[in-house]
Structures are given as structure tokens and as C-alpha cells.
Task: structure prediction
Amino acid sequence: MPEIKRPVQTIEVNYVCDKCGYGMMKKVSEMDSNTGDIMHECMICGHPQIFQWRSYPRINYIGLDESIDESTDTSDDR
Result:
């Protein structure tokens, strides 16, 4: 199939800390290839949290005709 191109906009995706409710989570280790676990820490309170198969912050892309609320998470961190 031939290539297709379309303009997109860049979206930053963050995760707010579940403990303090203010800080953003930041990846502090590499992903475990067996489990998909990625250790994160809050940049304010240091609360540790594990996410599977995705890291924060990250960049996603959506079409210019899509809204942030409509966009589906198309990142594939696996």
C-alpha cells in the first residue's frame, strides 16, 4: 500500500499523582520486558507508582480534525 500523510497535532499526556494530587509522575526506571512494569515517582512528593506498558510524560498525536476528548490512546509502549 502507498504511504499516506496527514497533518497532526502533538498532545502531551501526563499523570497527576494519586497521593498528593498535584505533582506529575515521571518515569524513573526502564520497562520490565516480562511484565511491562515501569516505575514512576511523583516530581513533588516522591510517591512511587508502577504503570504497565506506558510511561509518563509521553507524547501522542491526533488528527487536526480530532479533539483531545475524542482521541483514543494509540500509543503502543509494548
Remarks:
- The chain has no helices and five strands.
